[in-house]
Amino acid sequence: MPLNEQLFDFKEYPKDVLLKDGSVVVFRPTIGQDRKLLVEFFRSLTDRDRRYFKHDVANPKTINKWCDELDYDLVLPIIALKKNGRKTRIVANGSLHTEPQGWSTHVARIRFQVHPDFRGLGLGQAIAAELCERATMRGVQKLQAHVRADNKDVLGLLRRIGFRKEGIFKRHAVDMYGRHHDVIIFWQDLEDFWRRMEDLQVDMDNPGCFP
Ligand SMILES: CC(C)(COP(=O)(O)OP(=O)(O)OC[C@H]1O[C@@H](n2cnc3c(N)ncnc32)[C@H](O)[C@@H]1OP(=O)(O)O)[C@@H](O)C(=O)NCCC(=O)NCCS
């Protein structure tokens, strides 16, 4: 099915996003045909990055399963693409996890990762802002991020954009060596988020570029 038909609900995509160094990446929701690029993206991350992920993203079976079971109502994955000559690669990946039924339909979770070559350019902030925007459009009021306590990079970014600690799941994650780690629950009221973006003078058309 052509991209535009699959993305009928997302007329603003593909969307150009300007980074701090003046380069441009393109955001759009993931489609099934992205599996090869996604496998390459996750394989190109360092072991240090991958150890923080909940799922075994180095295994193509994990990515294939995500691509086979795409359901934007449950999980909305957004990728950032960078074109270099004739080659296009994924340079960041994010996802918004919503609850379609029950007493927490106003709550959602986000996850995101940026390729090491593209860090420090505002891309992490831009993809987080994109997920917040889509969450707001879906009527989400409260956003959460579940982060392993030793993942300092993500903790730094979440704090910067206004997420606060809500609680801790003790010894909740087990790494490949059998060690247990606490998982911190961060949360954000989306109305506060938009106020904070205004305070930081973030231009939402170019959320990676802030003063
Ligand atoms: C965290 C991550 C997304 C940051 O991406 P990024 O594109 O480099 O972030 P940005 O350039 O948008 O940074 C925005 C702000 O976040 C904070 N930040 C980013 N990286 C940070 C770090 N290593 N330590 C502390 N704060 C950091 C800073 O406040 C930064 O603002 P500044 O540039 O004005 O200092 C990236 O390091 C990453 O993908 N890490 C691995 C992801 C991961 O483990 N995900 C697992 C579960 S979600």
Would you give an account of this structure?
The protein has 211 residues and is of the alpha+beta class. It has a single domain, classed as Aminopeptidase. The protein is built from 7 helices and 8 strands, in the order αββαααβββαβαββα. It has an 8-stranded mixed β-sheet with strand order 1-2-3-4-5-6-8-7, sandwiched between helices. Strand 7 (164-174) and strand 8 form a beta hairpin. The protein is globular and about 45 Å long. The structure holds coenzyme A. Coenzyme A binds at residues 49, 52-53, 111-114, 119-125, 151-154, 156-157, 160.
Determine the number of helices (DSSP H or I, runs of at least 4 residues).
Answer: 7
Report the portion of residues in β strands. 25-35%
* Quantity of strands, as a count: 8
- Describe the largest sheet: 8 strands, mixed
Number of domains: 1
Low-confidence stretches: 1-7
Please state the structural category.
Answer: alpha+beta
> What Rg, in angstroms, do the CA atoms define?
17 Å
In spatial order, strands of the major sheet run: 1-2-3-4-5-6-8-7
* End-to-end distance: 41 Å
Instruction: Using the 3D structure, state the CATH architecture.
Output: 3-Layer(aba) Sandwich
Ligand inventory reads: coenzyme A
Any idea of the CATH class?
A: Alpha Beta
